[in-house]
Write a sequence for this structure.
């Protein structure tokens, strides 16, 4: 078992590196690629409550995006809007240059694995794939059949009798067989055991590398997405808090430690959070423009920030208490990651 | 696309087919019994109209077959309700409840097409099933209608012609709409049942008598001549009555003496106390009753639909049901298209 773990781990890490390289290549060109997903002032209200509002987001092509926020933050709403399952109450959402809620051909180019992996439980795996083949003009299930075979998921088994991990693989297989240009996954890892998570992420990363598909994965746990994603979107209470390539976000933020009561160091754009124990102040800061991403102040010790700290600082900067629609236990989930501040 | 619908609903379709086959088998067995009773009582040798030629044999026949008839009529009336509950209500409700509509709606297919594929398949199955059932019912009911024409009467009317088809499709559509709007299977089932029974009863009680203005005639009582041993001789009703909506005996003062043709003894006594004084003497009783009828000026007031309007009524009712069904399906697809997933 441990041998398999190691192997999977190795492959995953390889993928991450490869992806990062290709993205850097794109950046060197200096041309910003057309966004795959763009929202302008996007809002959606359920009766009187706004599930999402004022969301201006651009996701460039080829990214693997972590969509992170506490439960009820608006992640599912954003994904459903992008998949054409809902129409915006205000603003607009544009995917691959079109409106997904009104263009059925566009839907064929978007894959969605919805929360809790809804599939017809009485269908066999083969029926499920056949369902997809009948309903999608763009369909290529060769690679996914290979992958299902590799995972030893029998095609003649009923979907309802598969394990959670296998079912997620089947749902992902149908989404991938559409050969989507944008693949959206809503909490795909939520109910899976660690081995199944790894296996699903492996399938996903392989597809990303092979097809250049842009992938958006949502989760309320950053830790489980952190090592496969290169782009981050943070939402909370229906608001977009932060979006950008992870490397740039990490470069643009820092933890500054300095003497108590001395204000904030020069060169800092914004202070996201601050803790003062009477002697020492620790603050999470957004650094100034591209030119001066350094703090030149000898009294301050400036350290690179970890991704979780960064996300928490943004979530915490808006709120002081707990998460909407959620027990108090949820926030610590995000706080007590395994590698706080320890991003490789 | 047809495959998709079939794969999704084949269990329901096969189950429905099995129920239909069992019903038809039951009707065949019951129909053969009806026929053998019909012949045993010699009704096949009576001249038409059989009810007039052999009244005794007809009432014997009806007594002998009432058990089977009582079973078949409600059973068959329940079939559309079952279609609504087992086919209609789960069709959309189960998808919305289990979230599988999100799976379906993110394939390259419009919601409208998805809806009409599923619904279309089941509507087609309902139409075919209803027609098969109607054929079997027509055959089954033939001896009953030969013995005493009753096609137009509530109960029998609903088994023949286009009625089962209209009710089947309507029940299906009500189920689909209930499931679409409630999004939950159990409430959808309950609403389907209540709505369908409401529509069913409302149609028969309220709407059906008014598809065409009924014929209204009055027939005077013969008034004594040939009255039989103190019993009131009743007038012959019009021969074209298909469905008697209100047949009443009324006095010349406009007082309703009874529902139906004739007076019962109590009514005679109340109206003409002198008739009660001489029951022992048949001749006196006869004279007293005849005098009473003359004095009251009794006549039969008949409001009815003529038998030859049967098909017009069948077409009207099926048309209403199908139009209502279409409205339900239209509202459902409109709602699905605008709703959030």
């Amino acid at each position: 078992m441990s041998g398999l773990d190691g192997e999977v781990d190795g492959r995953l890490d390889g993928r991450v590196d490869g992806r990062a390289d290709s993205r850097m290549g794109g950046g060197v060109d200096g041309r910003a690629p057309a966004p795959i997903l763009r929202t302008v002032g996007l809002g959606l209200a359920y009766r009187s409550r706004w599930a999402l509002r004022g969301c201006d987001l651009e996701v460039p092509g080829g990214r693997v995006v972590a969509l992170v926020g506490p439960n009820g933050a608006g992640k599912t709403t954003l994904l459903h809007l992008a998949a054409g399952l809902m129409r915006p109450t205000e603003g607009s959402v544009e995917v691959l240059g079109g409106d997904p809620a009104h263009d059925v051909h566009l839907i064929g180019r978007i894959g969605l694995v919805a929360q809790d992996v809804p599939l017809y439980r009485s269908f066999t795996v083969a029926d499920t794939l056949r369902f997809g083949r009948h309903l999608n003009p763009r369909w290529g299930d060769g690679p996914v059949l290979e992958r299902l075979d590799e995972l030893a998921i029998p095609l003649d088994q009923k979907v309802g009798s598969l394990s959670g991990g296998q079912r997620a693989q089947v749902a992902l297989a149908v989404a991938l067989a559409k050969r989507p240009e944008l693949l959206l996954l809503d909490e795909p890892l939520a109910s899976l055991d660690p081995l199944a998570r790894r296996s699903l992420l492996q399938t996903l990363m392989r597809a990303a590398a092979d097809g250049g598909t842009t992938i958006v994965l949502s989760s309320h746990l950053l830790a489980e997405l952190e090592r496969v994603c290169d782009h981050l979107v943070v939402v909370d209470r229906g608001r977009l808090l932060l979006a950008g390539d992870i490397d740039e976000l990490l470069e643009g933020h820092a933890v500054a430690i300095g003497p108590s009561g001395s204000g904030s160091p020069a060169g800092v754009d914004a202070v996201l959070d601050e803790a003062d124990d009477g002697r020492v102040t620790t603050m999470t800061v957004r650094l100034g423009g591209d030119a001066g991403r350094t703090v030149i102040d000898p009294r301050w010790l400036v350290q690179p920030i970890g991704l979780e700290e960064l996300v928490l600082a943004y979530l915490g900067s808006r709120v002081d208490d707990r998460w909407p629609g959620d027990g108090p236990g949820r926030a610590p989930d995000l706080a007590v990651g395994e590698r706080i501040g320890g991003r490789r | 696309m047809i495959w998709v619908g079939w794969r999704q609903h084949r269990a329901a379709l096969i189950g429905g087919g099995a129920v239909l086959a069992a019903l038809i088998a039951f009707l065949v067995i019951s129909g053969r019994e009806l026929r053998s009773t019909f012949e045993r009582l010699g009704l096949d040798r009576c001249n038409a109209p059989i009810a007039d030629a052999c009244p005794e044999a007809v009432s014997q026949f009806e007594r002998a077959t009432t058990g089977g008839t009582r079973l078949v009529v409600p059973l068959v009336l329940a079939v559309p309700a079952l279609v609504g509950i087992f086919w209609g209500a789960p069709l959309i409700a189960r998808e919305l409840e289990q979230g599988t509509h999100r799976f379906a709606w993110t394939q390259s297919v419009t919601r409208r097409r998805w809806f009409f594929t599923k619904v279309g398949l089941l509507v087609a199955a309902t139409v075919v099933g209803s027609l098969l059932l109607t054929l079997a019912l027509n055959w089954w009911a033939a001896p009953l209608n030969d013995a005493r024409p009753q096609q137009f009467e509530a109960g029998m009317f609903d088994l023949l012609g286009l009625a089962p088809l209209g009710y089947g499709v309507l029940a299906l559509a009500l189920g689909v709409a209930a499931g679409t709007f409630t999004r939950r299977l159990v409430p959808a089932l309950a609403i389907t049942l209540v709505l369908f029974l409401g529509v069913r009863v409302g149609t028969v009680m309220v709407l059906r008598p008014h598809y065409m203005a009924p014929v209204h005639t009055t027939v005077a009582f013969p008034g004594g001549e040939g009255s039989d041993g103190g019993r009131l001789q009743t007038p012959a009703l019009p021969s074209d009555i298909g469905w008697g909506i209100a047949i009443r005996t009324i006095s010349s003062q406009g007082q309703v003496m009874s529902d139906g043709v004739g007076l019962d003894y109590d009514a005679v006594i109340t109206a003409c106390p002198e008739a009660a004084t001489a029951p022992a003497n048949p001749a006196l009783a006869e004279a007293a009753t005849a005098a009473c009828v003359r004095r009251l000026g009794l006549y039969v007031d008949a409001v009815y639909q003529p038998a030859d309007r049967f098909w017009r009524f069948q077409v009207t009712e099926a048309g209403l049901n199908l139009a209502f069904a279409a409205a339900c399906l239209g509202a459902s697809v409109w709602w699905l298209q605008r709703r959030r997933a």
User: Anything to note?
Assistant: Chain B has two domains: 2-212+308-338, 222-297.
